[in-house]
Amino acid sequence: MLGALIIVFREVIEAGLVIGIVLAVTRGARGSRAYVFGGVAAGALGAGVVALFADALSQAVAGRGQELFNAGVLAVAVVMLATHNIWMARHGRAAVSGEKSFFALAVVVAVAVLREGSEVALFLYGILASGETAADLFTGGLAGLALGAGLSALTYFGLVTIPARHLFAVTTAMITLLAAGLAAQCAGFLQQAWIVTALSQTVWDTSGVLPDSSIFGRVLHTLIGYVDQPTALQLVAYVTTLAGIVIATRLATPRPAVANVHAAAE
Asked: Residue 130, SS3?
């Protein structure tokens, strides 16, 4: 039961933190909840499908199917998060009410639930196969789900206590860090699949101080992309994505003078 609790809790907080950030970004925007919870439902459905075909997926592409699938899912999330930040910078806070912004965030939510949900299904199947009873598995999973959902709710309510004039900047920074972390994970999966073999040396090792498998490590892993033993490629992917989104966002932000001219013309 304890194993199921820990696994479900760990995976739920990873998806839950993403959902909490997205809910905070779209707080007060009419129609946004349908997109966000639609993304949750689509991700859960996709996770169920992935779990059903997990064996075929892992055996695909000469046994590298699972890693390539994860890398592809993460790449989609990075593109969507970057698109959202650039869109928001170009169109301002009013863009929070735009369907394009909602759709991008809904895809990010769906991808997060898809990835973590499929991992939950696979891990629980492994525990069940090891001899754990279905009742203990269910009880532990349910407890993990409740604890993870509670922590995710605290994240959301913590974010929404931030004054509105600062919330936009805070959530933009969090989404940028989230995208950089996902890019680093994507690079890691490509290396695990032996698609990319360059820059595979470990840059540092803090696993003895703060393992990324611990609860706090997983939270940092989700929020800022913390990895206790990153490879050089992961570090390059992280820094490149971070710098790319920051630069693109600044370039997309209208200059005050130009914005005033547009306002006068309207």
From this structure: coil
Distance, CA of 71 to CA of 77 (rounded, Å): 10
Residue 244, pLDDT > 90, answer yes
Over residues 47-67, the pLDDT tens digits come to: 888 878 877 776 777 778 878
3-state secondary structure of 73: helix
Whole-angstrom Cα Rg for the chain: 19
Do 86 and 15 meet the contact criterion of CB atoms below 8 Å apart? no
> Token pair for residue 215?
């609860």
First CA to last CA distance, the chain: 63
Of 76 and 30, the one with more pLDDT: 76
CA 161/CA 205 separation, integer angstroms: 36
C-alpha to C-alpha distances, 159 to 27, 222, 262, nearest whole angstrom: 10, 16, 33
Give every CB contact of residue 237 below 8 A, 6+ residues apart in sequence: 180, 183, 184, 186, 187
| Alpha-carbon gap, residue 243 to 225, rounded angstroms | 14
Distance in angstroms (rounded) separating the CA atoms of residues 182 and 201: 19
